[in-house]
Amino acid sequence: GEHMKAIELKTKLSDGETLFICHKGTIMKGVRVSGQLALTNQRLIWEKSGLANAVGLGLLSLAGTDYLSVPVSEIVTVSGYWIPAAAGMKFMLKSSEELKFQLNGSKPKKAREEFLQYFNGQKG
User: Fold this and answer.
1) Which of 12, 45, 50, 82 is the most exposed place for a label (fewest CB within 10 A)?
2) What pTM did the predictor assign?
3) Beta-sheet strands, E only, within the chain
4) Calpha distance 57→38 (Å, rounded)
C-alpha cells in the first residue's frame, strides 16, 4: 500500500513528485553502503541508512556515498544482474556512468521487477 513506500525515506519530495518504489538497497561503488533506493516520477534517489535529513542536498557528486539524486531523464537503460541471495540492478546513465545497486531486505527480486517494469514500460 501507499504508506509502506515512504517507510524510511528521508528525502523530501518536490511539488508534483510522486514516490513509486522504495526498497532497501546497497550501493556498489567501491565501498558498499546500505541504504534506501527509491524511484519517483522525476528521479532515482539513493540515500544512506540513518541519513539525518536529505533536504537541500540536491545532486551531490556520484562519488558521494551518502546521497544520490539522478533525474529519470538521465537514465538510459536499467538491467538486472546476478548476485547470490539478492537482486542486482544496473543503471546506465547518459554520462556513460554506471550505477550498481544490490537490493536487500524482503522480496528483493520483486522490487527489482517493479523497477524494471517501470523503466521498460516508460522507455518502450
Assistant:
1) 82
2) 0.80
3) 19-29, 31-40, 43-48, 67-71, 75-83, 86-93, 98-103
4) 16
